[in-house]
């Protein structure tokens, strides 16, 4: 049952208790954030009958952040974020392991991979929203993304907060698309608008609640004092971001700056989507110090291990590309598991102690060939390790 249906919506709002009592034994309630008053009635129903799986609640907003929410169903509900499709899902590839698992193990395929080239630009601009994937590349897909944003703003944002200037939100999201992959800069974000910086900060938080943007925080260490402590911006999907700023594959090929930003967000979101299906808990950060050394993506597994991922749109990798990863390795000490530079090249290559360069394809392609493990001491060379074929 969807609460986008006006009859269902009015029924739930008028009599939440009666609405819940009349539901079938098992039901999916879509766009549940539109009627926060239903949660208290759901809580009573769950307390009377603790059989799990009776209610599946779905919505396009983080319902736990709805201001009018009467009860959070704490202890009675498991929240699961559904990301857009990952590249592994789009390619319908069998799941034989995750890139994140291989990254923390320091084990990667020996095989050479074909460069992505312009096919990578198409993947970036396509994105992962299922309805967008069903549309032909070009104006129809762009129109879907823009209509999606309009419907999100006009309908869901009204349910989350009372704001006067709804037209600011699509413009703010478009601006976020232009600076995705960069540090969060409130002054820059607020300068085009005739509203206060605090208002823009609140509006940006609304976009986060809609899963349209993310702000991964900086990774800190007591070993380093000269760290930049500002979060980054990543739009929730590169297809959406490209549609908003008008970037197609040809534009990405011509504008290396936009390509670099979008590629970083593309890799970040692919890792987030893959991580959402893993059993272990991972946290995502970025790393930058005041000397300019940086790591695009830092992944922390529990409290025991750190891994870093640097993203390059180039077809070659040099030792200087590992500057940030070396600083991260030094700061993390024994917690550092592996650092990888993902680039649009062909070969998987070791760059010394727990550092390597990997083709971007390694992020989502099945890994069935013989693998090598990174050396654990400075200046280590490749160590070939025989492995069983994946069953």
Helicity range: 25-40%
Category by helix and strand content: alpha/beta
Low-confidence segments, given as residue ranges, are: 376-391
How many DSSP H or I helices? 15
What would you call the shape?
A: globular
What is the tally of beta strands?
A: 13
- First and last CA, distance: 40 Å
Radius of gyration: 23 Å
Quick check: average pLDDT?
85
Structure description:
With 391 residues, the protein is α/β, with parallel strands linked by helices. It contains 15 helices and 13 strands. It has helices at 6-14, 16-21, 38-48, 87-90, 99-105, 118-126, 130-133, 139-160, 168-178, 186-190, 197-209, 238-245, 249-254, 256-275, 323-332, and strands at 27-30, 55-58, 107-109, 213-214, 234-235, 282-288, 294-301, 305-311, 336-343, 349-350, 355-359, 371-373, 383-385. The chain has a six-stranded mixed beta sheet, sandwiched between helices. A three-stranded antiparallel beta sheet has the order 3-12-13. Strands 1-2 form a two-stranded parallel sheet. A hairpin with a 3-residue loop joins strand 7 and strand 8 (305-311). Helix 6 crosses helix 12 (238-245), helix 9 (168-178) packs across helix 11 and helix 9 packs across helix 12 (238-245). The longest helix has 22 residues, at 139-160. The relative contact order is 0.12.
